[in-house]
């Protein structure tokens, strides 16, 4: 779907014109690839990550085995053992419910006679009202959901990850509960929105793109074997098991404190986005559907999509065929005057990344410097991950770079 058909993309473009950054959920359709939502470059697209704490409860089976899981129990079972039944074995047949539907324990899918006085094992995480309404004394739920996706050839969505798994939050009173533990990018998005507002409070003159850049380039790297963000219901990403993990969490875990003072920012304005849309082949009608004004693609808007001054890079190349791409980036000094930044490249041996110039000297705040990045090589796997880091010894400004292939 083009941006001109996407109400979120259109609305957020108009917000950007008013100097407002829109934070958006990346969606929960993973873990398969190409499932992300809300990937317009003027949006902040957020993935859901786990947190460094859990609400733990323990379940003991009749054979003495103990299992830990997520729960907030204010009332225990007083040591009484109850029968366990799988939701798929207790369909509400009188209502025409199939075992596959009753396995989810959705409201009205369970047979009350079969689950009454028992603990129900459910295949999805829900509110628990279904088993409760059917007369069960408890429910055990399991899930393996997670946002995960590839969406654009030239930048990396999602932009970053924020806490979104097992989040304790206020709940609608009509459900009978004041609070609930909820998971998904709809929980991560508010965290990123709050972080953006926090950064804005320290830097009130910054553009939406500058705030977004600060959040992206200061994210905590998650490409490690040992992660501190663990959960009983979420995937733990690792470079050996998940070679395309950046398409799940973007630049890494949100770090609001570091984002307040990122050192350098990659800034973008409305004209730059219009040039990008023109480079993508938008005609005047489609372009104006996004911008809502009299914008048009002319020789003055001639550019490339890869030339958008974005803080991350995603390149789609052909498998096993040599490639070479060059593009320019411009950074604005928001750290210290009289500072010198040096470029450091981290990349696998099969691709070469060079930067010209690899040293940027700034004399004043808000001074801008441009540099050229060249990426070349041959990709024999599905994805290769790299990064460009500008550092002055105090600030480390990291841009993730992903080069990937797709099956024909």
Describe the structure.
It holds the Pfam family Peptidase_S8. GO terms for molecular function: serine-type endopeptidase activity. Keywords: Hydrolase, Protease, Serine protease, Signal. This protein is of the alpha/beta class. Helices cover 20% and strands 26% of the residues. It has 10 helices and 19 strands. Strand 18 and strand 19 form a beta hairpin. Helix 5 (185-202) crosses helix 6. It is elongated. It starts with 6 loop residues before the first helix and ends with a strand. 39% of the residues are buried.
Query: What is the mean predicted local confidence, pLDDT?
Result: 84
Order of helices and strands: HEEEEEHHEHEEEEHHHHEHHEEEEEEEE
Number-wise, the strands total 19
Low-confidence stretches: 144-152, 224-242
The helical percent reads 10-25%
Oligomer: single chain
Radius of gyration: 24 Å
> Approximately how much beta-strand content do the residues carry?
25-35%
Major β-sheet, in short? 5 strands, mixed
Note the gap between the termini. Answer: 21 Å
**How many alpha or pi helices?**
10
Structural class: alpha/beta
- Morphology call: elongated
Major sheet: arrangement of strands? 12-19-18-14-16
Family: Belongs to the peptidase S8 family.
Domain Subtilisin-like protease fibronectin type-III: 308-403
Organism: Platanthera zijinensis
GO biological process, one term: proteolysis
């Amino acid at each position: 779907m083009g941006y001109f058909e996407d109400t979120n993309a259109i609305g957020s473009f108009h917000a950007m014109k008013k100097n407002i950054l829109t934070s958006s959920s990346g969606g929960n359709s993973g873990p398969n690839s190409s499932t992300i939502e809300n990937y317009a470059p003027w949006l902040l697209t957020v993935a859901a990550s786990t947190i460094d704490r859990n609400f733990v409860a323990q379940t003991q089976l009749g054979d003495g085995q103990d299992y830990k899981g997520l729960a907030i129990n204010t009332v225990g079972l007083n040591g009484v053992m109850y029968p366990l039944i799988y939701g798929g074995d207790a369909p509400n047949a009188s209502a025409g419910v199939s075992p596959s539907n009753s396995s989810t324990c959705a409201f009205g899918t369970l047979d009350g006679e079969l689950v009454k006085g028992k603990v129900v094992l459910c295949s999805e995480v829900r509110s628990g009202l279904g088993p409760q309404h059917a007369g069960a004394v408890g429910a055990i739920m399991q899930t393996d959901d997670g946002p995960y996706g590839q969406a654009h050839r030239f930048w990396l969505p999602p932009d970053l990850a924020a806490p979104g798994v097992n989040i304790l939050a206020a709940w609608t009173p009509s459900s009978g509960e004041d609070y609930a533990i909820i998971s998904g990018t709809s929980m991560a998005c508010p965290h990123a929105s709050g972080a953006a507002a926090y950064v804005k409070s320290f830097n009130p003159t910054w553009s939406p793109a500058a705030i977004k850049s600060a959040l992206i380039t200061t994210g905590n790297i998650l490409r490690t074997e040992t992660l501190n963000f663990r959960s009983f219901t979420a995937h733990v990403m690792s470079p050996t098991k998940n070679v395309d993990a950046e398409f799940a969490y973007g630049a890494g875990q949100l770090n609001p404190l570091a984002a307040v003072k990122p050192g350098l920012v990659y800034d973008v304005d409305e004209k730059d986005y219009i040039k990008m849309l023109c480079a993508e082949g938008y005609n005047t009608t489609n372009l104006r559907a996004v911008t809502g004004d009299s914008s048009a693609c002319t020789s003055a808007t001639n550019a490339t999509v890869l030339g958008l001054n974005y803080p991350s890079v995603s390149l789609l190349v052909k498998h096993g065929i040599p490639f070479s791409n060059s593009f320019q980036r411009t950074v604005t000094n928001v750290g210290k005057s009289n500072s010198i930044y040096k470029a450091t490249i981290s990349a696998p041996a099969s691709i070469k990344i060079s930067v010209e110039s690899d040293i940027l000297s700034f004399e004043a705040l808000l001074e801008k410097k441009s540099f050229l990045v060249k990426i070349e090589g041959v990709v024999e796997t599905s994805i290769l991950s790299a990064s460009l880091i500008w550092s002055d010894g105090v600030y480390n400004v990291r841009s993730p770079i992903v080069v990937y292939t797709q099956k024909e």
